[in-house]
Amino acid sequence: GKDFDALRQKAREMGAETKFSASEAADAFTYMAMAGWKTEEMMSGIDGIMALSAADGLDLATTSDIVTDSLTAMGLTAKDSAHFADVLAAASTNANTNVSMMGETFKYAAPVAGALGFSIEDLAMATGLMANAGIKGSQSGTALRGWLTRLAKPTKESGNAMKALGLSLTNADGSMKSLFQIMLETRGAMSGLTEDQKALYAAMLAGQNGMSGLLAIVNASGDDFAKLDKAVMHADGTAQRMAETMQDNLNGQLTILKSQLSEAAISIGDALIPKVREATSVVQAATDWFNNLSAEEKQVAINAGLATAAAAPLLKVMGGFLTVGGKAVENIGGMVKTIQEMGGVANALNSALGMTSVQLGLVAAPLVILGAAFWKANEGITGMDSRLESLNSRTAETSAQLDSNGTAIQN
Question: Quick check: 204 and 158 in contact, CB under 8 A?
Fold first, then answer.
């Protein structure tokens, strides 16, 4: 209905204006639909996802899958997709990671971060700081999940470490601290410790699997910390700017041209579909009617079709041959003249359609089959044998006449 038409039009719009084809945009819509997004949500969210995909060089369907899954895990909605894409783009270009690896991290960490009310900016920043230390993908996701889980529900060990360092998950008024604030306080609390002490407290706070990730956050330089913070907090528009930069070259323009040609093909197809459907209906109806004929009736129609297929190249040869004879041809008789004219028709059709004689015959064959079947069904087969005998007689006479005039024609 209208929803389908709106999505189709939006996919075609994306295909005409971006590096992606309408088919690729449709693939992205598939993942959005699987995530439970409605029509309006998909139409508003596709722009940001396509910009992020173009900026990172990741295929559109995978980018869509990452964004939809992560948005849901973070407790966000489709209207947040453009900002979400901008944050991922900003983090990936200011840290040693990319959208694909961040998506893998979010599989593990985003559900916990979302449940605690943390923002996508802070989660992307933590992911980027870990990536700068070589902790990426599922490894950083596991580390973050372990640390956040032990913050939310401290074990005896992590509780003792938090108490010793003066850390807490909530403010004095009971409100939840942001992940940025927790990272900042943890960095400050561990700044004066020795390397051994940092490792000990990191293991107590995040567990054995998460300690390396926490140490990456704690040991990050002040410049890297401030750079990522600024990037994710001022991320709006980043994905689109990156996409435009990525496409500002010959390869990018050729890719966009390919998408535009794809849209042109769709437009042509839309114009042809009604005609194709109409022709298909006619052929289907004729085929059904032909199938209902008796075996004898079908055989007559088939024989007529085969005769036409064989006659087409012969008519062309005879027409061209007889034309050479000039005035002498005119004396052969009315039958020969008719054959000459038919050969000329074959020549004209060959030139206009770019078809060989055999191809012309094969195209004509099914038409003659249907025509013969139609004639037989309406006219009956009364007198068919006598008419065939008469035709055979005239053909024999013409053949003899052609033989007797062969020498004159060659001259």
Answer: yes
